[in-house]
Structures are given as C-alpha cells and as structure tokens.
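Section 4.2 – Deliverable D4.2 (structural model, holo form)

The reporting period included a commitment to supply a predicted holo structure for the target in complex with BIS(adenosine)-5'-pentaphosphate. Inputs used:
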Amino acid sequence: MNIILLAPPGAGKGTQARHLVDTRDMVQLSTGDMLRDAKSSGSEMGLKVAEVMARGDLVTDDIVIGLIREKLSEPNAGGFIFDGFPRTLGQAVALDVLLKECGQSLASVIEMKVDDVALVARITGRSTCASCGEVYHDITKPQPADGKCVNCAGTEFSRRADDNAESLRQRLMEYYKKTSPLLGYYFAHDKLVSVDGLASIDKVQSEIANILN
Ligand code: AP5
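Output (structure tokens):
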C-alpha cells in the first residue's frame, strides 16, 4: 500500500512516517532526507541544492523526480510512504506516471492539518538524533534526561540549518503557493483524507492507522 503524507513544514510527516516504518514495514521516501544526504556526501548535486534548501525554496522538479525514480525499483514490503513528495503539480503528475510504469498505485493521500502558529513552535523546537534521525521537540518530546537517544542510545543531537524563522517563512510561502494546490488534485482523484495534525502524536498515529486498516 503506497501513501503520501501531504502537509506543511513541521506538521509531523517525518514523525508519523517513522512510526509507519516501525509498525507496518513500510519504506519511507523522504526527498528532504535524500537531499540532505546528498549535501553531506559533498556530491555536485548536493552542493547545488544546499543553498536552495537553506533559503527555504523548493529544489527543481527534475532533481527530486530523479531521486524518487531511483527508489521505486527497490523492495517495499509494506509499501512506500512518500514524505515531502510530491510538492508541485509537475511532481504529482510524474509520480502518477512512475507508479503506473511499475504497476503500482496510490492508496491514500493523507493531509495533516496544522495551523501556522503551531508549525512555527514545532519547527523552532525540533532537534534530531545525529545517529538514527529520531525526532525530538523541546516541549512535546524532549531529549531524554540521560542524554541518550531512546532509539539508538546515540548522544549527539542536531538542529537543521533551515529551522529558523526566516527560512520557515519562505518554506510556508512555497507550501501555500506550490504544494497546497495538490490537495485539490488528490481530492479530484478521490484519494484525499484528512487528519487533525494538531492532536497528540499518539492520536495522529491512531487516526492514520484507522485510515490504513
Ligand atoms: P523536508 O525535509 O521535506 O522538510 P519539510 O517538508 O519542511 O518538513 P519537515 O521535515 O520540516 O517537517 P515534518 O512535517 O516532517 O515534521 P516532523 O515530524 O519533523 O524538506 C526540506 C527542504 O528540502 C525543502 O524546504 C526543499 O528545499 C527541499 N525539498 C524536499 N523535498 C522536496 C521536493 N519534493 N521538491 C522540491 N524541494 C524539496 O515534526 C516537527 C516537530 O514537531 C518535531 O519536533 C516533532 O517532535 C514535533 N511533532 C510532530 N508531531 C507532533 C504532534 N502531533 N504534536 C506535537 N508535536 C509534534
């Protein structure tokens, strides 16, 4: 079963995707993570996109579609979770074509509704385990008191270069201009379902489970 998590920056897409990977053997395809990996590897493409990402702009469609195309041929026991992709109409149409080419389809597009004030609080409080990527939040999911990641016992935590007020403003502008029209696209394709992303992490998990079951 392949699904898309469609929501603005900081809505909780990564948090929910990791839970689905752990509980349903699904494969998370996060274009943001792929681009950050390319940046850390120092590849030509990674260096090219680093500045774009830090500003909060979208990377070009051809780059992200290329990244997804490479992954679709890999094993996906429980299905793919598209996290942060597609983000433009061009990417959505390309995904339809790519899935059709490999004989697959989309089960649901899950919109996570969160208001802008909450998004700012979530993004500015976020930190991540440098070893395994477990996501924390200063208020709602603080790093453990013993300084060890709950998932891998790693002791280093990092904050993203684009998790600042200025980049976030631009990320939100990009979302409303280029990504939010996809809500209409998937509604018209009868794929859209919405959950209350303002609820607790556990509550959102169970709402998503109800949709998938
Ligand atoms: P990307 O990495 O995809 O970032 P994003 O969409 O901005 O989303 P985030 O990862 O910031 O947030 P999230 O929704 O995963 O929230 P999280 O679970 O961490 O993209 C980064 C950049 O890469 C883009 O700006 C662009 O430049 C480029 N890019 C990527 N894909 C692209 C594409 N397809 N096309 C073009 N460019 C692309 O949660 C956030 C915080 O909230 C955490 O601290 C978490 O603990 C907390 N939290 C989560 N859920 C809850 C809850 N229910 N209650 C309370 N707190 C919660």
